[in-house]
Design goal:
This protein is of the alpha/beta class. It is built from eleven helices and 19 strands. It has three domains: 262 residues, 4-Layer Sandwich (Purple Acid Phosphatase, chain A, domain 2); 57 residues, no CATH class; 42 residues. The longest helix is centred in the C-terminal third of the chain and has 24 residues.
């Protein structure tokens, strides 16, 4: 059986001020063409179909078009909801849509009910684990202390129990939307940290033939049988070095056999350039970036006049402009943003306590800060779901 693994479409999302809907439509056409030309037997989409819980109408229309075109191919498709999706909205009509071969898995309680797709050597069981927000699903999975590892481990216990009841030789594929240890994040994923921990160990998924991961936007290999497809399009300049692709995965009678990357069409390359303005406007080695989407960081000690307009004369697709003047670290003019660069919310809160009180927080106080930050993020998630 040949699978096409993709994820993180983020339909409706813009790249800075650029509307990406046309590029997203081009990707859908490429996906459908790949299914047809590479004799794909099943498509798996590992979450974040939309960019937000209530997507714009144009994004919904594009998703509807994608469903119709995949159904017309006669190729079964399994999709799960991600942390950006509203699971309830994405799952509306799942029973009816399933009759057309498009299987939406958005209910955490149904994670151990597989989609069975046969091939010449037997069944392949596809288990869809939608994004599991620990605070919202802990009761469903009977875990006392909510955390990503605990709820995913409980979900996978159910998967393995179901698989054990299947006929010998049944192969298995798990779709999951999570941050797995060993994965490399970018700036465009939403933080899913709970209790100071975002990642789960890859061993949680032991016992299945392939794990189709979503959430991280870079295509990467966690292990031979566990991979992120990454997003098909870039959504931040931190993805400038990404190769946007999907995984073409072959299963034989014994399980995982091979995987091949299939490149996705990217509307325009990304470039991150840095230096003083005069240098950037003159350097011959930057000619290759004149048609790229550009993030420019100016290092002039004094902010130059009208820098964006001047950059746009050479780099007309400049989308982001930042300033990082070359100054000594002790210089009082070093910006607050620069001092916070690379620090997470927990570290910033702890630094504030240290600044105000003269001593850092103890373990009990750190736990209180963690709980407060988790509560804010969970409340945001609940509001998104309720909208």
């Amino acid at each position: 059986m040949r699978l096409l693994h993709t994820s993180d479409w983020h339909l409706g999302r813009a790249f800075h001020r650029v509307n990406m809907l046309g590029a997203q439509a081009e990707f859908i056409s490429h996906l459908v063409a790949t299914v047809r030309e590479r004799a794909v037997d099943a498509v798996v989409v590992s979450g974040d179909v939309y960019d937000r819980a209530v997507p714009p109408l144009a994004a919904v229309e594009l998703f509807d078009d994608a469903l119709h075109r995949l159904a017309d191919q006669g190729t079964p498709t399994v999709m799960i909801s991600g942390n950006h999706d509203s699971a309830r909205r994405l799952g509306v009509g799942a029973g009816l849509i399933g009759r057309a071969g498009i299987h939406l898995r958005t209910d955490p309680g149904a994670c151990a009910t597989p989609v069975l797709i046969p091939d010449a050597t037997g069944d392949v069981a596809f288990y869809g684990l939608p994004y599991l927000e620990p605070a919202l699903v802990k009761d469903e999975f009977g875990v006392s202390k909510p955390g990503h590892e605990a709820v995913l481990a409980a979900a996978m216990d159910r998967v393995r129990a179901d698989l054990a009841e299947r006929p010998a030789g049944t192969r298995s594929v798990v779709l999951a939307h999570a941050f797995v240890t060993g994965g490399e994040a970018s700036d465009s994923e939403r933080d899913i940290t709970v209790g100071g921990v975002a990642a789960v160990p890859s061993g949680v998924f032991d016992g299945v033939d392939y794990v189709a991961l979503g959430h991280l936007h870079g295509s990467q290999v966690i292990s031979e049988r566990a991979r992120y497809s990454g997003s098909p399009l870039p959504y931040s300049f931190s993805e400038a070095d990404h190769r946007k692709s999907m995984w073409l995965v072959d299963l034989d009678a014994h399980g995982f056999a091979a995987a091949e990357r299939v490149d996705c069409p990217v509307p325009r390359p990304l470039a991150r350039i840095r230096g003083d303005l005069a240098d950037l406007l003159a350097r011959p080695d930057l000619t290759a970036h004149e048609e790229s989407w550009v993030e420019a960081t100016l290092t002039d000690p004094v902010r130059p006049d009208d820098p964006m307009a001047r950059l746009a004369e050479r780099f007309p697709h400049t989308l982001s402009l930042a300033f990082d003047p070359q100054r000594a670290p002790e210089d009082p003019d070093v910006s607050y943003a620069q001092r916070l660069k690379g620090r997470d919310d927990q570290q910033i809160a702890e630094d504030f306590v240290t600044h105000v009180r003269g001593a850092g927080p103890d373990e009990r106080e750190r736990a209180v800060l963690r709980e407060a930050l988790d509560a804010v993020r969970i409340d945001d998630t609940r509001r998104e779901v309720a909208r």
